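Honest question from a wet-lab person: if I give you the sequences of every part of a complex, can you actually get the arrangement of the whole thing, not just the pieces? Trying it with mine:
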Amino acid sequence: MIENRPFLNLLAHLTLMLGVAIVALPVWLAFVASTHGPTDFMSGTVPMWPGPRLVENYSRLLETGVSTSGTPPVGTMMVNSLIMALSIAIGKIVISITSAFAIVYFRFPFRNLAFWCIFITMMLPVEVRIVPTFQVVADLGMLNSYAGLSIPLIASATATFLFRQVFLTIPDELTEAARIDGAGPLKFFRDILLPLSRTNIAALFVILFIYGWNQYLWPLLITTSADYYTIVAGIKRMADAVDGVPQWHLVMATAMLAMLPPVAVVIGMQRLFVKGLVETEK
Amino acid sequence: MKRTIFSNQLLPWLLLAPQLAITFIFFLWPAAQAIRHSVLRQDAFGINTNFVGLANFRALMNSAQYLNSLQVTVVFAISVTLLSMGFSLLLAVAVDRMIRSTSVYTTLLVWPYAVAPAVAGILWWFIFNPTIGVMPYVLDVVGYNWNHMTSKTDAMILVVIASAWKQISYNFLFFVAGLQSIPASLREAAAIDGAGPVRRFFDITFPLLSPTTFFLMVVNIVYAMFDTFAVIDATTEGGPAQATNILVYKVYFDGFVGQNMGSSAAQSVILMLIVIALTAIQFRYVEKKVAY
Amino acid sequence: MASITLSNVGKVYAGGTRAIGDVNLEIADGEFIVLVGPSGCGKSTLLRMIAGLESITDGEVRIGDRVVNQVEPADRDIAMVFQNYALYPHMSVRQNLAYGLKNRRTPKAEIERRVAEAAEILQIGPYLDRKPRALSGGQRQRVAMGRAIVREPAAFLFDEPLSNLDAKLRVAMRLEIKQLQQRLGTTSIYVTHDQLEAMTLADRLVVLSAGRVEQIGTPLEVYRRPATAFVAGFIGSPAMNLIPARAVGHLPGTAHAGLVGIRPEDLTITPEGNIEMQVQAIEELGAQRLVHGLTGGETLTVTMPSDMPVSDMLRLSVRREALHLFEAESGRRIG
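Yes, you can. This is the full assembly:
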């Protein structure tokens, strides 16, 4: 800031507060709705302040769910989401970091070809080739399984590039010192590269966890058994199902629960998250 | 390029094997299938499959529905990009004036990134619900009868708002980073040259921010075209009367619900070409950034 | 501890560029050898070939009795000190020192003993549990040396280890390295571009230029009888005057030479001097001054005591023994 103009500062604060309010509005309304009973919505408008049924609504959802929608208890769906998100995040990190290690620290025939094969995945988002990919997973018998939920999504060019970038900034002398100290490739990977990439791994984990948790189309397609429903995909089934009129208080409570883990991760690890976000795009 | 490398020949392949296997099975093979099916056509019983060349593509180009979807996608992508980036830039510029409260406001603005598009759709769907939603109630007071289940315009506005809302955090973070990387001395020099805050923004800040703006434009278009499937599915399901049926939604719908494999495959191929073009643009930008 | 022998060692890169050509060198057990030359002369490449970090395309490197051309760096029984120290940033000083021993499955008690000993020698005991980033440049330098010492290797390889330090610390560490090497008696090969560092440290110097050995000898031999015009110009500060013989053709014995070399300190100012120099610039160094000027159209530098008066025109003389004569084309010494 250059000159001190109280009016401009005030304007800036007002803009930001209004912005925060607009951004928060939908979540506030969802939270309010999730604390009321079903009859409170009959009057025609949604209440603006929280009601008394917070504990009742949430505990009912987590334990039994909305049986009429054919979805399992929300607790089960959250566990499924957690398994999927963790598998995707960890899977992507593991296969990307080993790929990047191979590409940066070895010279072998067809190295460039391998690199391009990984690169091309960036250009083939799952939405674009959804029909044939579904077919492959169905043929492999991976429908309705945790493997089917996660494995097809764990190839990642972005994560591979990020680790490649990180490795390229590690000085050659460090590798040489390790070689003279008697470290072979795997020992070097474990003792030097992994510890040096720790913050990058953590930052990437935050981003990928959110990516995995928020998957929608894929779990919607490949889970037909309620045992494998994830919460993000399940919420839509819940909103659709109940006799045409959704049980708003329960749908909104489910929405709150669906947001809670990834939002908590972002706010709790804000610094790492911002770093991860900005660096994966470099 | 590394000066020091390990000499093993088998090990790198073992390290690459998982990534390559998944890439081949779940990316390259399905993509190849899409290309193959895009030049084939099945008869009504699914018994005979014939090679039809580019007929599927020609059919798409002559299909009013597909052209409508294309148009809807363009309107939708541009609206989402402008709305989200405009709003984020305003907030980022405001935060850039702050000294102490930057991190508080950042925390209050980053979390929508973590909300799933499907959930964002549900939230706005609830707000705009014609019978019990808050917004129709407010709009009714000013004399507007909101109903996104029947009005094409209302439906488009709903999906644009829901999609743009989710993207605010991302744009905000990159704009703040972009603003912070502009040297203060440039703005100070302009101030000494007699430019007021508004002039400075348009003469100095905005032009210097253009790499960030361009980058975000590409990212937002990609987001609006490919990542908003869930928003559409959770709110309008492409309706009413195809008004929000964007290309990725149509691929899904024609493939799974309509079971029209040839057409769906041809649509996949067209979408792939679009992604490749957008990725190429993005990479040219990255290269340029490196050259600075 | 061991001797190191290089026989006809050379290196050609895959593209066909020759980096090192035909180097022969016998390093005795316990000797301190300095490879010196301007940047790009191949001295670091040669050191890295001995370390096993670069492949050897011609000839043979032997450490002790063993040909090590195909031996992994870790198995060559050498330790290396890098220019940027290459300390593992995520490990404490203690872990940095122990890492190489741990990889060799040295017993724990033995590792502890050696780390303690090295810490004692280098006076880094108080910092053993710190991370490298919490250390000053000089301390990091000591840790890098400690990592070499604990290994008790057959040879130390130093790759410009002092060039990241400031001038004062560099002089102090130079002395420490010399004393340490004498105390441990370990064969050492040291790479530097700084001729002063080379002169002060070396038992024998190897002067390199463009991938070739120009001269091998003790610092005094190299200083007194540079084998080529290149060495003559490179070793010694201020640098030796190298003048085409025709400019000083009237000096005795220079008739057949291409280039005549005269060290600035070998020129004396006397009224009877037979070299006339027109003074152009004077640099005060305190105890003495450097006077730059022209003679017969060629530049010439002379050192003189700072209390001696300087006129625009100086008459200089030089003893016949102080003249270095070189062939014009090859630069080889001819007298």
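Two things worth pointing out. The longest helix of chain A spans residues 74-105. DSSP finds 14 helices and no strands in chain A.
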